[in-house]
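Hi Q.,

Before the meeting this afternoon, I wanted you to have the nicotinamide-adenine-dinucleotide prediction in hand. No need to reply - just skim if you have a minute. The sequence and ligand are here:
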Amino acid sequence: MKPKIGIFGAGWVGLVTGACLAELGHEVVVRDVLPERVEALQAGRVPLHEPGLEELLERNRERLSFTLGLEDVVDAPILFVCVGTPPTYSGDADLSAVWSVVDQLPALEERALLVMKSTVPVGTGEKVRAALDARGLAHVGYVSNPEFLSEGSAVRDFMDPDRVVVGAFTEADAKTVESLYDPLETTVVSTDVASAEMIKLAANAFLMTRISFINEIANVCEATGADVVKVAEGVGLDHRLGPHFLRAGIGWGGSCFPKDGVALKQLASNSGYHFQLLSAVIEVNELQKRRVVGKLEKHLGKLGGKTVALLGLAFKPNTDDLREAPSLVLASRLLAEGAEVRAWDPVADARRLLQGVTFCDSVLEAVSGADAAVIVTEWEELRELASDEVRQAMRRPLILDGRNLLDPEAARAAGFAYEGIGRAASPLAALPETEEPERQATT
Ligand SMILES: NC(=O)c1ccc[n+]([C@@H]2O[C@H](COP(=O)([O-])OP(=O)(O)OC[C@H]3O[C@@H](n4cnc5c(N)ncnc54)[C@H](O)[C@@H]3O)[C@@H](O)[C@H]2O)c1
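Predicted structure with the ligand bound:
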C-alpha cells in the first residue's frame, strides 16, 4: 500500500506533483487557501493552462481530492510544500506562505515528513528544522526535494525527470522520499539539505546565464553581420557545451527565473558576497527586452501614433502564465512612447495587467492596420505569420521576430521587412511606405 500524500499549494508545482503522484498510485489530497481555486478543482476545472494536466487529473479523480481544510491533509505521512515563494521588495524570497504551512502544522502525533518542493533560499531547511524542534515536532522530518519542471512540459518533466534531488538530515528520510520516485527511471542526487537548496538556485542561474550569454552574442552578431542561429548551432554541437538554452530572443521571464535569479543574488549579498556574474546576467536580460523598442524605432521612426501588434503575451508558449513576461515590459514601454498597442495570445489573458492595450481574438485582428508585428512568444500558430493575408492586413508589412521563429528569407520573399534577433537586419528600403522613417539610435 502506497503512502497517502498531502500537498500544500494547488499551483503549477502542487497540481502537477499531485496528479503525477496519483498516477503513480498514491492517494493524494491537495490543499490550497484560495476558495475559488479549490472549488474549481473540485468541480473538475483546472485553473491553469498546462498540457496534459487536465487529462491526468481526470484519469486519477478517484485518488485525488482538493480541500481548503488543513485537517484533511495533515494525517498524510508525507506532506509536500508547493506554495509560492514570490520576491519581496528587497529581492529576497518571500517565505510567508512556507512559514504559514510550517506554523499551522498541528501537534502531529504520528511521525510525518515535510518535503519542500518550493524554491527557497539556502538555509531555509535549517530554519524550518529548528522551528519544528522548538515546537516539539522533532519527530516531523524535513527533506528538500526541489522541483525542476518547466511550465508547458511540466507533466512530462515530472514523469521523466533528468534527475531527482533529495537533500535530507537523515538517511531514513532521504530513502522515504527517494522511494516515491522508484517507478521513474532517473538518477537520484542524494545530498545534504543546503546543497539541495543550492542545486535548484544554481541550475536556474546557469540557465539564465546561457540565455543572457547567447543574447549578448546575438547583439554582437547584429553589429558585425553574423547570424546567431548558425552561431548557436555551431557552438551547441560542442559536447562540452550542448545545444540547450542557446536560443537568442527578447529575454526570459516567467514565475521562476526572474525571482530566483534575484533571490540568489540577494542571498549571496546577504552573506557578504557580490555575485557579479549573476548581476550582469540579470541586467543583460532587462536591456534585451527593451532593445525591441529601439529596433522598432529604427524602422518606423518615433513610435507616437504608430500601431504595434504584440503576438504572444505568455512568458513562453504552452502556458497562460504571465508572471514577469517580457510582453508586459514591452507593452508598457510602447505605450509610454505613445504607440497604439494591439495584442493577441491564444490562452493568456492580460486584460487586468495591461491597461490601454487593445486585446484581439485572432492574429489577423491584431495585425490589422499595424505598422509592425512583434513575435513576443513563439506560439506554433505564429509560424505561418508571413502570409499574404497578414501582409495585406498590415499598414506596413514589418515583422520583428523576437524569438527567431520564422525563416528570414521566406518572410522577405513573402514581401515583409523582417528583423529577428542576432540576424542580418532587413534593409529599410524593403518597407513599402511613402513616409521616410526617422532614423534613431537603437538602445
Ligand atoms: N511554476 C514553475 O514552473 C516552477 C518550477 C519549479 C519550481 N517552482 C517553485 O515551486 C513553488 C510553487 O510555484 P508555483 O508556480 O506552483 O506557484 P503558484 O503561485 O502557481 O501556486 C502556489 C499556490 O500555493 C497556494 N498557497 C499559498 N499559501 C498556502 C498555504 N498556506 N497552504 C496551501 N496553499 C497555499 C496559493 O494559493 C497558490 O495556489 C515556488 O517556490 C516556485 O518557485 C515553480
